[in-house]
Amino acid sequence: MSAVLNIDPSWALRPRPRLAELPKSDATRGKSTVSGFASINPFIALLERLDAFLVIENYNGFTLRIDPETHARARRYFEDAYEAVIYPVPELTPDGEGGIDIEWETRGRHLALNVRSREATQPDFISWREPEGRYEGDVVTQELLNDRLRWLSR
Amino acid sequence: MVVPNIPPPYSCQTILFRAIPYDNLLFKKTGEHKPNVFFRRASSDPHGLSLVDSIQGCKDVFGLPIFGVRSIHVGAMLDLNQDLWLFPDADAPSHANIRHRNGDLTPRLVDNDPECRNLADDLMRISRPVEYWHEENADERFQAELAGKRAGRAAD
User: Fold this and answer.
1) Interface pTM, i.e. ipTM
2) I need a surface site. Which of A105, B7, B34, B47 has the fewest CB within 10 A?
3) Distances (CA, A) of A152 to A35, A127, A149, B21
């Protein structure tokens, strides 16, 4: 397994704590334990932030809360992509229609993944652009997401 | 294609405003607005990207407090060369919608993800945050500052 890193080289060399690897008593303690790891591991921080959108209140007529299916898909994307590589923590934004918009930005390169709500008939989508460029994109696959994250890190 | 041959409902000099209706549209660390502000959404923008003609109007549109306001210059929007036009809201004279010139709606993320993002980036580039949007006299202050800037330019 190769370890590549684009921001903080020290992370590439450290074993990444996984929720499943936590001692059982800690894992069952829930968010407070995760928060402890979140302070030292960007992947755990990312999952914690994603989880928050399961319970967020909708606001001003916008659907900010994501459904469990959307959450699970987003989590699977992250778990696979971050398996061997620690990428920066992306910006998470509810799209207001029950989906979640996930955006990474590195040196002016943008990569955006829209994980759609279960009501949406369209598949999840990924878009990217070079600095000062225009977005292009495609229906997301895990392979494409991983490829685009590597591109972002180059 | 029906190309409007009438002037837009506002002159090119007009400034319109876009509300920030929920706090996730701000970067937490800086408080700056995300481009997602200009993503069209079915719930708030069913007839086009919604703009209003005052800062107070932005606050009045929603039932709960908003989190910011951006100003957008009508002429700059029309100059984007993205085939955009302003369509007045027949039921609310203070309100206009950005659509394509032929009347088609601009895409939502689910319709055309890259085009939605490109348009949002364009509109972010030509719009500005109103830093004092929360003040009671924000509209008066904005118009006074705008008049001052225009007077200064005219004098140059």
Assistant:
1) 0.90
2) B7
3) 27, 12, 5, 31
Residues from chain B that touch A126, judged by Cβ atoms under 8 A, are: 113
Task: State how far the Cα of B36 lies from the Cα of B15, in Å rounded to an integer.
Answer: 20
- Nearest to A112, CA basis, from A101, A123, A98, A122: A101
Angstrom distance (rounded) from CA A100 to CA A20: 24
pTM above the 0.90 mark?
no
Tell me the average pLDDT across A33-46.
Answer: 67
Sorted by sequence, the CB contacts under 8 Å of residue A15 that are 6+ apart come out as none
Q: Token digits for A86?
A: 């620690």
Q: With an 8 Å Cβ cutoff, are A60 and B34 in contact?
A: no
Record the tokens describing residue B152, joined without a space: 């200064």
* A117 shares contact with chain B (CB less than 8 Å): no
**Residue A94 in contact with partner chain B when CB distance is under 8 A:** yes
DSSP category for residue B108? P
Tokens standing for residue B23: 């706090």
In this complex, which of A93, A97, A137 lies closest to B34 when CB atoms are compared?
Answer: A93
- Write the single-letter amino acid at B37: V
Q: What string of DSSP letters covers chain A?
A: ----BSS-HHHHHSPPP-GGGS-HHHHTTTHHHHHHHHTT-HHHHHHHHHHHTTTPPPBTTBB-SPPHHHHHHHHHHHHHHTSS-BPPPPEEEE-SBS-EEEEEEETTEEEEEEE--TT--SPPEEEEE-TT---EEEE--HHHHHHHHHHHH-
pLDDT digits (tens, 9 = 90+) for B88-128: 888 888 999 999 999 999 999 999 999 999 999 999 999 99
- Which of B21, B42, B114 is nearest residue A97 as measured by Cβ atoms? B42
State both tokens at B28: 């937490």
- Inform me whether the C-beta atom of residue A132 falls under 8 Å from chain B C-beta atoms: no
Containing B127, the helix (H) or strand (E) segment is strand B127-129
B127-129 and A125-129 as β-strands: parallel, antiparallel, unpaired? unpaired
